[in-house]
Design a protein that fits this description.
The structure holds 2 protein chains of 2 kinds. Chain A is an all-alpha fold. In chain A, about 60% of the residues lie in helices and about 0% in strands. Chain A has a domain of about 240 residues. Chain A contains 16 helices and 2 strands. Chain A has a two-stranded antiparallel sheet with strand order 1-2. In chain A, strand 1 and strand 2 form a beta hairpin. In chain A, helix 2 runs antiparallel to helix 15 and helix 4 crosses helix 10. The N terminus of chain A is likely disordered. Chain B is of the alpha/beta class. Chain B has 4 domains: about 25 residues, no CATH class; about 100 residues, Translation factors (Elongation Factor Tu (Ef-tu), domain 3, Beta Barrel); about 120 residues, Nucleotide-binding domain of ferredoxin-NADP reductase (FNR) module (Rossmann fold, 3-Layer(aba) Sandwich), CATH 3.40.50; about 80 residues, Ubiquitin-like (UB roll), CATH 3.10.20.30. Helices cover about 25% and strands about 30% of the residues of chain B. In chain B, strand 3 and strand 4 form a beta hairpin. The longest helix of chain B is centred in the C-terminal third of the chain and has 14 residues. Chain B starts with a helix and ends with a strand. The mean pLDDT of chain B is about 90. Classes of the chains: A mainly alpha, B alpha/beta. Chains A and B meet through helix 3 and helix 9 of A and helix 1, helix 2 and strand 4 of B.
């Protein structure tokens, strides 16, 4: 089922207007059902998670005060890395999407939340929520296709600068939070002179302020709190935690749209699209990652990239619940449900980045239409009795 | 100065969060980011109304008798806000505050307060507001006309007068469906026994209907010389306001507290309705006659900020970008582009665009 087939005809063009309309309604119904059901249990989830993150971060910082002892160092780095990952992905990313705005909580709200990364929430909300989520995988409009510094799709014209992308790729991985922050500025617009100078200055000031605070916190204050003997070790620990977070979030995010299964679109294909077409484009342009509940949590549920792109404002904790319904729609209309194991997806992305550093390259094979695996009823031991077999363990 | 420095240092350690976010982990009630309170008890006053007694997490900064409190609570994961008149004395010995809530069948917060709120529940405390109430210089003669749950601000006014031993000449006419449904009835009756300066007229609307302005001359012949406090449903207030304007003396003072039910849900027959384009949410909504921008937007799936839903708290404001809106309470029309409007009490008049 997950083995790739030869490139099929484009699902977006194969569907009739009526089918597209039905698909639009089906997805909208999934969205509305969850929206109507949101309540206490969801509020408890996000609050507990925020609380867990804060406790973990505080404890890790305390552990790192003894960072000159290796066990404390390992414990502190592990805790801090996990805390930073949770804070950026499952908490920050999702709150800034407005997934928790329905609670009407003044602090857990997309308009007031700030996160521990170099991007200012305002600039990120524009480049991510608006540009990326609206024009997903439309080459030329979605600036997240290669982030304007890499060629990840054969539709992007090759330029000599892409020869450097194997190196750029590694640098971006290591400095991902800075990459995202500067990406929000939109280089293309700046180079073409289309960006308002005043806005640019404001945004640069915003990044500088966030950078200053993060650097002071992670690389000055907390190392200093470990005393003269511990300063260097805590500094190393904090650098490590930020690196771990950068590499991990880069890996998860790259696996969301750059694996082979993801379709990309031309501006013509996306022009004047209906609601149904919009849903289908989101479905085709995103790729999930298989994994355990812990894996999904650590990836901010971006491993449910398909569900996230269909319903960016739905609380992430609900993606797992609706995944079967999304699959049902896929099966009914012969659409693929893009997914794969983490290692395989990540290697695919790396292969594409290396290959497309050079001219040419062709569209990779896509996934076949989704077919639900046959459910085999497990046979139960039975005991013979009068009137036929009865289950031994009813 | 030292405190400021310490706070600054603490902020540098917690950025982008605030030190408060971590203090709140130890005890949510220590947080200084927003005022909270704990429900101490819920006491039934009548079959439908209960007094909710609250212990504020910080020292109560006081209120003027007659003012209302904006209070928030979380119901099924969503924070809701309403405004209720404060019924407690501002000098409560234990620093407690109370509101008195009447159960409204289709309501959301009133059933919660009356039927579900339990001691220990956390509530959020907003601003204390309102200009209705006793002036600094106490009037010599007072007339208080109330009906139904409009009794609540009168309660805190009389409490104040009683405590200050200043119940000089107060006439109070209260309309209630039955004697049992008179919120604080026993307390007012007791006050009438104890204080010669307080005369109470209970009007049972089940038998004779609500009091009308025409009856004033017989019931309170000197009503023109009294400072009048009017508190109750809209129809009653409108009738008395018109009467005072026409028949009142030059020096007659009338103070009014309007008790609005939640409006904007189509219960007001004002204006024409229209379409709303929410610019930020990217949602198109259509509002029928009497449907507020907020309600229309929510029905169309927009996630809009909201507070009291009665035009008080300004949580729901957005900038008008194009078109005309009408205030459902007053019928007033607003057309200025860039004006900040409250979505909960304004309805579109034709197509509008709003920055939300």
């Amino acid at each position: 089922m997950t083995t790739a087939s030869a490139p099929t005809d484009h699902p977006l063009h194969r569907l009739s207007p009526e089918e597209l309309e039905e698909i639009g309604q089906a997805f909208q119904a999934i969205h509305d059902e969850v929206r109507a059901d949101l309540g206490d249990r969801d509020a408890v989830y996000i609050r507990s998670l925020i609380e867990f993150h804060r406790r973990l971060a505080a404890l890790s910082r305390i552990a790192l005060m003894a960072s000159r002892y290796p066990p404390a160092w390992v414990l502190g780095v592990t805790g801090l890395s996990v805390a930073k990952i949770l804070e950026n992905m499952e908490i920050g990313h999702n709150i800034l999407h407005g997934q928790w705005d329905w609670m009407n909580d003044p602090f857990i709200h997309s308009s007031s939340w700030d996160w521990d990364t170099a991007s200012t929430s305002v600039a990120w909300k524009h480049s991510h929520n608006y540009l990326h989520h609206t024009f997903t995988n439309v080459v030329g409009k979605d600036k997240d296709v290669g982030y304007q510094i890499m060629r990840v799709d054969p539709k992007q014209a090759w330029e000599p600068r892409f020869l450097a992308q194997p190196v750029v790729n590694v640098l971006l991985m290591l400095a991902f939070e800075w990459g995202v922050a500067f990406h929000d500025l939109d280089f293309e617009e700046i180079l073409k002179g289309r960006k308002d100078k005043k806005v640019l200055k404001e945004e640069l000031k915003g990044i500088a302020e966030k950078a200053r605070r993060q650097i002071v916190k992670d690389y000055v204050i907390f190392p200093a709190l470990s005393g003269r003997k511990g300063f260097k070790r805590t500094l190393q620990a904090n650098i490590t935690a930020n690196l771990v977070r950068n590499i991990w979030s880069n890996a998860i995010i790259f696996c969301g749209h750059f694996p082979d299964q993801a379709y990309t679109f031309t501006e013509e294909e996306a022009a004047g699209e209906s609601r149904g077409e919009w849903y289908v484009r989101q479905l085709l342009g995103a790729v999930n990652i298989d994994g355990s509940d812990t894996f999904h949590l650590m990836s901010g549920n971006l491993s449910y990239q398909v569900e996230h792109h269909l319903f960016p404002d739905m609380p992430s904790s609900r993606y797992k619940e609706i995944a079967p319904k999304v699959k049902t729609v896929c099966e009914r209309y012969g659409l693929p449900y893009n997914t794969g194991p983490f290692g395989k997806q990540w290697l695919m992305v790396q292969r594409t980045i290396l290959r497309l550093a050079f001219p040419g390259g062709k569209v990779r094979p896509k996934a076949p239409p989704y077919v639900a695996p046959e459910v085999v009823e497990p046979s139960r031991p039975t005991v013979p009795a009068m009137g036929g077999p009865v289950p031994a363990f009813p | 100065m030292l405190r400021k420095r310490l706070l600054h240092a603490a902020r540098a350690m917690t950025t982008p969060l605030l030190p408060d976010d971590y203090i709140g982990l130890l005890n949510p009630r220590w947080s200084t980011r927003e005022a909270t309170g704990t429900i101490v008890r819920v006491t039934p006053e009548t079959e439908e109304a209960s007094t909710v007694v609250i212990k504020p997490s910080h020292e109560w900064s006081g209120h003027k008798p007659g003012q209302y409190l904006r209070i928030g609570a979380e119901i099924d994961g969503v924070r809701h806000w309403r405004a209720y008149s404060i019924t407690s004395d501002r000098d409560h010995p234990e620093g407690l505050v109370s509101i008195t809530v009447k159960y409204v069948e289709q309501g959301l917060m009133s059933p919660w307060f009356v039927r579900q709120a339990r001691p220990g529940t956390l509530v959020f405390l907003g601003e204390v507001e309102g200009t209705f109430g006793l002036p600094e210089a106490l009037p010599a003669k007072i007339l208080s006309i109330s009906a139904g749950s409009g009794i609540t601000p009168v309660m805190s006014m009389l409490r104040e007068l009683d405590r200050r031993d200043a119940v000089a000449d107060v006439v109070h006419i209260h309309s209630t469906r039955t004697a049992e449904r008179f919120i604080f009835g026993p307390m007012f009756r007791e006050l009438a026994q104890r204080r010669a300066g307080y005369a109470l007229h209970e009007r049972l609307t089940g038998e004779r209907g609500r009091i009308t302005p025409a009856e004033l001359d017989t019931l309170v012949p000197d009503w023109r010389e009294r400072q009048t406090f009017l508190s109750g449903p809209r129809a009653m207030i409108d009738a008395f306001e018109a009467h005072y304007l026409e028949h009142g003396g030059e020096d007659t003072i009338l103070r009014v507290e309007r008790f609005q039910p939640i409006i904007g849900t189509g219960n007001a027959d004002v204006g024409s309705g229209g379409s709303v384009s929410f610019r930020v949410q990217d949602v198109q909504a259509t509002c029928g006659v009497g449907i507020s921008i907020l309600v229309g937007g929510e029905q169309a799936g927009a996630m809009l900020p909201f507070g009291c839903r009665m035009g008080i708290c300004r949580t729901c404001v957005g900038k008008l970008r194009a078109g005309k809106v009408r205030d459902l309470r007053t019928g007033e029309l607003f057309t200025d582009e860039g004006q900040t409007i409250r979505t909960c009490v304004n309805a579109p008049e034709g197509p509008i665009e709003i920055e939300l």
